[in-house]
Write a structure and sequence with these properties.
Blueprint (H helix, E strand, L loop, with lengths): L2 H7 L6 H9 L3 E3 L2 E2 L11 E6 L2 E7 L15 E4 L1
Antiparallel strand pairs: 1-2, 1-3, 3-4, 4-5
Helix pairs in contact: 1-2
Length: 80
């Protein structure tokens, strides 16, 4: 699954277009590398999202095409 879609499905980012723009601006890293929006997410990847001065790190636990809002947090775990 593309990273922009994964971020939307997991609800780390509200809209897929926003996730795509973040990737185009170089604000998304996977395993320490800056990636494009077409990057294929794999289980155990560490995703870093740059929101201005704040950085969120999340480890991918599961990949699903769709998910309910209550189950979205099961797709990842936040890492320090």
């Amino acid at each position: 699954m593309r990273i922009d879609k994964f971020l939307k499905v997991s609800r780390l980012v509200k809209r897929r277009t926003v996730a795509k723009e973040m990737a185009d601006q170089g604000r998304i890293k996977v395993n320490g590398r800056v990636v494009k929006s077409s990057y294929d997410v794999k289980i155990d990847d560490i995703i870093e999202l740059g929101y201005g001065a704040r950085v969120i790190k999340a480890k991918v636990l599961n990949i699903r095409e769709t998910t309910k809002k209550a189950e979205a947090s099961e797709l990842y775990e936040l890492v320090d």
